Amino acid sequence: MLDYVTVTGGVMTDEEIQAYVDHVQEKNPQRKLKALNIEMDGEFVNLNYTFEEVPFEHIRRITGYLVGDMSHWNNAKSAEERDRVKHTLAN
Known about the structure:
30% strand
């Protein structure tokens, strides 16, 4: 059995478990399966699953550029960002 799969309420073969894993992955091709809980309830099977976190970098517009961070900026561009007028929304 796969490490990230748990089966409750009954017993399944490895082939049956792999079929459910394949089903979830086919329905979510861009996501990586983190955990799958298969709950057997008589004739019914409930699938509860979670996916790995998707890496996300916050991007914002600063001084006309879309950037995630300013670590690679030179001193002049960093000074431009530091000296800019920061606008806020009025409440």
